[in-house]
Amino acid sequence: MQRNIHNNVKNLLEKFGRNSLGIYVCHYFFINFSNLRDIYIPKEYIIIQLILILILSIIIIFSANFTCRIIEKNQYLSLILLGK
To answer: What pTM was estimated for this model as a whole?
Structure first.
């Protein structure tokens, strides 16, 4: 059971490592074109801030990875945006 979880985590991290440039490029656009900077949560609610940041980070990483897979399917976009 533990080996299976270990292998799944290892495979996921390897996948993100292979696509790191694309994830950075997509991440830049997702962050800059969203209204995440306008969200205000008082400093007293640090646990809520941490949970919100964790959830948003996971959503952005998986969205960027999905977007990169779509870009990689087009030869020209892949070359221009990802250098592949």
So the answer is: 0.65
